[in-house]
Design brief:
By secondary structure, the protein is α+β, with helices and mostly antiparallel strands. The chain has five helices and six strands; from the N terminus they run βαββααβββαα. Strands 2-3-1-4-5-6 form a six-stranded antiparallel sheet.
Length: 156
Amino acid sequence: MAYDLRAVIADGELLRGVVAELPAARLASIGQGLSLMPVTDELFDSVNDGGGVGTLGFWGLPGGFEENLAAWSAGGPVAYVEAEYFGGVGEQRAAVWNDGRIALGPLHVEEGEPFPSGGSPISQALRRLGVVASAGEDEFAAVGLDRHRHSEAWIA
């Protein structure tokens, strides 16, 4: 079974202000005060600066979009996350911007690599955003990122 996620995650209030500026953007609440803005094909095309994908090693970050993430982070930490899995095998990437600059990452775990002791890239990013996990779960599960298998499903 496949799982793919390309999204911006931040405080719900912060992202509500961002969505007002981006007609192609949609939000989904994920709990603990956070919202997720999937980077759909429509959003990607609307914000891409024409240079293809952005820097930092992400495969789905629109060109120039890291400047938006940095600007938005003046209002609080903002994460960009990517995950792609099929049959339990895949990879994750994540970075967090705060106060206009990268505060974490970019983190990357390739296919076949174990997660570091600090957790998966996405869980580490969520922790930076203030997510608290209960005993026996990670931050990824704590906000329910396993509820949908594809980015677009969050806003369907």
